[in-house]
Amino acid sequence: MEGIDLVTQSYGRACLHPQLIDRFYEIFLASHPDIKPFFRHTDFVKQKLLLKTGVIMLLTHLEGKSAWTENLIHIARRHSKQELNIPPSLYQFWIDSLISAVKEYDNKWNPELERIWRKILRAGVDFLLEHYDHVEAT
């Protein structure tokens, strides 16, 4: 996918700052009143590692490497209507929050990079939402 290298490099620069993921959750949990209840019983030590790794998996998948595709499908199904039932409308808040956090910590941030980030994350969210109505065969 065009621009994936720029986004991967940007994420790498931002991840050099240990406060990135904490900052993301500060922004994300405050971004919409329906989000915080989904994290009511969350182990945030584990969740922060899952997020950091999940973004890498998503970027790798969008780069055309299938090593993490099955893991992403598992994540998508976990967030699907059948399991956590995360409304598709809330994913835009995830995108906006991640971009806001990365923007604070990437010293090479610019409007064109933000446009590419938005395009890449939208493609990733669209992939996850393909599994929203997934029903396990019994």
Any descriptors?
mainly alpha; globular; Globin-like; 138 residues; single chain
SS element count, helices: 6
Q: Element order, helices and strands? A: HHHHHH
Helix content: 55-70%
What's the count of strands? Answer: 0
End-to-end distance? 36 Å
Question: Can you offer a commentary on this structure?
Answer:
The chain is mainly α and 138 residues long. The protein has a single domain, classed as Globins (Globin-like), CATH 1.10.490. It has helices at 4-15, 20-31, 44-62, 69-78, 91-105, 111-129. The longest helix is centred in the middle third of the chain and has 19 residues, at 44-62.
Per-chain topology:
Blueprint lengths: L3 H12 L4 H12 L12 H19 L6 H10 L12 H15 L5 H19 L9
Q: Can you summarize this structure?
A:
The protein has 138 residues and is mainly alpha-helical.
